[in-house]
């Protein structure tokens, strides 16, 4: 495949103990390390550099404004939300998987764990699970046979996960992986009302005023697959008004821009300790397209599953 379009890295370009500012590839354009990965010692660099180290000079870091006002407060709230989940064990078939379903694959290496989005290509009960080869920044990720992986998926109001390993790496007619068929699958059932705290900057348009009416900036403070809550310094709607909520989020390596039609179910005026007044709106999503529902599931269930 060659390293065309990539520039070589010197060992001195990599700072031990600091996040990588760009993804790192080998001479065949296989992804070795993602942006943000931390090299812990010189030995790791030496092992990685045996086949050359490269980076993409055109790669640009994506910015995303998703977070919480207080990490500790966020973790405490999320732990409370986990009380709305139920852990079960089942089989792969009970997931009711369909060809084309999005899966998340976590690849374990001696340098850490990386997560990638793949698609289910097919499966044979008690035989194999076939998924597309993971990619990052437009390049195939280097995978090895017998490499341990963790696979996660989302369906309805449940998140699924199972441990496996790569049985076979195939490159024709397309790049894909055969995974060892799991004996058991962990299922985390989540009530539809379960919400996770966020602090996402978004825009709300009041459709009762008009499709092309001006949007108002809001802060989305929690999200579920059926509704959300946001705060703003203006009273942008009345109860039962229809709104359109938009925001930018990043799910792993993919930026998404959901457009969510919703109905106002509650509106309250709240005051902070500093005396600043803000309006808090509770909304219910309406007629969600499949793509938007998948985005919400990924945002909510993935975080809950990863805390297990």
Describe the protein in words.
The chain is globular and about 60 Å long. β12 and β13 form a beta hairpin. By secondary structure, it is mainly beta. 11% of the residues lie in helices and 44% in strands. The longest helix is centred in the last third of the chain and has 17 residues. The protein has three domains: 49 residues; 92 residues, Pnp Oxidase, Chain A (Roll), CATH 2.30.110; 102 residues, predicted glycosyltransferase like domains (Thrombin, subunit H). The protein has a six-stranded antiparallel barrel with strand order 6-7-8-13-12-11. About 8% of the residues have low confidence. The protein contains three helices and 22 strands.
